[in-house]
## 1
Amino acid sequence: MTSNFSHALDELSARYRALRKSARLALVITGALLLLSMIAFALKPAPMTDLAEGHHSRSADLYSLWDQGNVVILMRHVERCDHSTNPCLAQPDGITVKGQRVADRMGQALHQLGLTQADIYNSPLRRTEQTSSFVFNRAATAQDWLINCRGSMLDNVLKHKQDHHNLILVTHSECVSALEKSLNVPSPVSLDYGASLILSVNPDDHSTRVLGFIDARDWAKVVARRP
């Protein structure tokens, strides 16, 4: 009986040691996973700056850069008719009535910002032509490279950017993505209809920097914060 008791006690002790070992291993694994998660979070690129939030537009020096003519705006066209259930403005390959209203409001804000030293281009497609017409109250110059933009977007932007003249390009989401890829943007943004990617170009060496983005509805807010 004593032998059986000792055997049971030894077995219980062995199980206890195994459980302690398993618990220590689980603790080590949990700690390692937590550390890896913290490292991954620390290394994750910060999201692109929303220039309409807080004081981001001032921190990015947007207004001074605009006054100096050192800004490039890549504006995605407003809501397209053939991808929406909203009423079309006219032709099905153009924009919607809702898109027109958005473009009108954007135009009011951008005219307050000042367009006298801005060169404006759009792609040849109807939805960008209409967007440009309602935002800027005039037809802009159509450029094929604003629709056929893969691999050449940055080169064409710099080719058309005149020193001390802002450049506004009414284009498409894939062209914005192509430019972000050329600039190795760590956290690319997927622009909604009418939203804009904002860049600065140094007139001395033509180095290009992403300042952030502005959603279509936020232009009035950004302009109102101008010093």
## 2
Amino acid sequence: MLKLRHLILIASSLLLVSQPYAQGCSDAGFCTMGAMKPDQNYSKRIAIKLRSIELNYYKGTSIISPVISAATIDFNLGINDYSAFQIKVPYMWITGNLGDNAGLGDISLSYTRLLKATNNWNVNGTLGAKLPSNDANATISNEHTGGMESPLHMYYQTSLGSYDAIAGVSALSGEWLLATGIQIALTENNNQFVWSDFPNYPDREYLEKNNRGIELKRGIDVMLRVERNWRFTNFNFSLGALPIYRITKDEAIIPGTTERGKIEGTTGLALSILGSFGYHFDVNNSVKIIQGIKLVDRDVNPDGLTRDEVLSISYVYKF
């Protein structure tokens, strides 16, 4: 049974971060997978085969009107002393000026292996994939569409609609986490959003500005995570930076044509700073809060991934 001081500690922590700050990851998924995930456990006495179930909730604001929330089950299963599988299954709901949408998000699968262990560092490698839960072309019928079923913008979609390949490596010590990874979209999605499908929306300029993602194929993302962790008997906290660089341009159908083209302004740096706090009730049960804020963003974001602010809260059960 939880002690009163534990409950007070949790309540105080939640109040401190009740503003919608960020998990810090406005990426397509790889910065919370395997070797690249934040606030990783480190112990010379615990093998990688540790198993856990994590229940996570976050709520994020985008650079335009949509607010994105998600509840995620994150299951980690160690298969021996050197390797483990991870599966993440999110349920998402989005609300914004164009309407609301909800449904299953993309499923993340990864395999992580301990590559090298020294007295002070563990080096881990991860291979993974993201599987689309739908084709990213959910529709809506409301006053803005004149009662017609019209595809929503990518910011309102619960899936990226593409099959992605992911790889990464990290070096982890008691104080530091250094990680890098790459995510490659292998296919385009089927999003068909065009501004003219929302003839009754009052701000036409707003719609035209975001009319750039028909059958979108995202560019390649490369990430780097640098995180400093302070660990104590029952709690820990960390501070870090998360730059994500899109090294190739997004491509999509050019509006008004049937031809595909590169989208200018979609390459470049997205940079977040982030912090975390974790409390361990015992060896099996813990909670953690991860927060951050976006400092730098790319000029054009047709994939709908950018988050200005997000709050992430998790309960972790190890077995």
## 3
Amino acid sequence: MSQKIINRVANSKLETIDLELFFPEIERISFDIKLWLKDELFLVEKDFREKVKNFDWKKYKNKAVYITCSNDAIIPDWAYILISSQFNNHEIRNVIGSKEILNIKLVTDMVNTFNFSIYKGKPVIIKGCSDQKIPLSAYSVLLEKLQLEAKSIMFGEACSSVPIYKSSNKS
């Protein structure tokens, strides 16, 4: 008895969304404040402001920067904010914090500009396997927008997925 094999996944209305596609292709680098501190520990305001004023910010153009301090120095908040302001003045994407926080911001920015109406009323699967590490909080950013449109949301691969959300709308 020969039965025809039917690929139900290929024939379904299931849409796949890959969160990795929301990560922009941009180099991510750190800006370590410790290099501008006296003995890499103490902030001297006059010297610090002079370094900010004379620094060549353009070398960070077309990069995404996370502003950090890699040692245990006590740094006033205004120092981080001042550096962030300079990056903003030069239209350089930046965050104060870790590389993970930067990745979350980059994903959030991309998700917020995406038109999710293409998933209206459709079952959607969020791809579970990626080449890069995706911060878990990036999934909540995606879900916030996707749940407004999708009929149902699953996580994983089409052959093996976990249900996450099902709309209460019958439409």
## 4
Amino acid sequence: MAAGTGSSGAGMHTAESSWIRQVHRLRHQYFQQEAVLDLPTPEVIRLAEVQDAIYSQLFDEHVVVHCPPKRYQAKVLKQLVARIEAAIVDWDTYAVSDSLMTSLAELMCTPMPLESAVIQEKSTVIYHLSQLDYSGRDSVETEEEPCIILLESRFLLSAAGTTGLRTWEAALHLGQYLSQYPQVVAGRRVLELGAGTGYLSMLCAKYLSPTHVTLSDGSDNVVANFSNNLLLNRLEEDPSRITFVKLIWGHPLIGADAQWIKGQPVDVILGADVTYDRSAIPALVASLAEILGMYVHAQAYVAITRRSEDNFSAFLETCLQHKLGLENLQYEILPRARQEGPFYCDQVEVRVYRIQHKIKSNSKEAASGSCR
């Protein structure tokens, strides 16, 4: 009898752990404002305790601090309620949560801006950092899970001549690499080129223990947004730890004011999705080569989304022209079903390269063969 009871208890614990994992996955996708969500399975979502957990973690405005836009909330709630209703086979045993129904009714009565206007607006997006080895690290105040919080235009491709108003796949992928290999930046001085929302810099400053982080971008609008995102992550501009500057690729740095990065040397350069505009690649690589030449022991880690073969080849060839050695780190994207946050497309190829100023004896072969 005792053995049977123990087995039943273990089974109940396993079942509870399963629905908790499903709710956590949904929560992480929801606060990242993903277009497609993995809703809990029918046998799970019809349970009252699961619906209560979904309401308290996603929709209870007395608990949730950073709510997605109302239009997005309404869209998700409609999907949830429809999924719950379809999952219920016995209405005497199961029901749709009153809290979820009340929230949906309130949202349906709320005036909504046009979708075209919503795309232009900035909202708070939360990226869960599943790959980060958080064991043994000091939490930031009382935060239980590692995450990056950003004010961004989640669904805007570009505006005001910049694509830096949202976080792109390559930044998320490079962030996963750095989370798995924190020694790349730990105790070092980091410069991010084309920082955009500042995702990588926030990740480094908040969790990976660099000596100093400098965010840079060529857009005034993007640079002006750095302060807001620092504050959202309980960080602030501090000359001894975090600074940000406007840096236009291709403008010569040697011989310029020594304060171009507030006098900080550079050990590690980061760049993600910086090759989307082929016309900007020569200027990007020129700046990269110049900085690596100024700090000969520095290394760059650049993540490239291989959308255009022409852009990809142009970047590699321009790096070789500047005598930069490239090493493909062979860091693959996890299949979408195995991602736990941040979530990003697994149907595009994103490569992470380590770049150095001097070409080693075998780098030419790597650049012309294995790096492609």
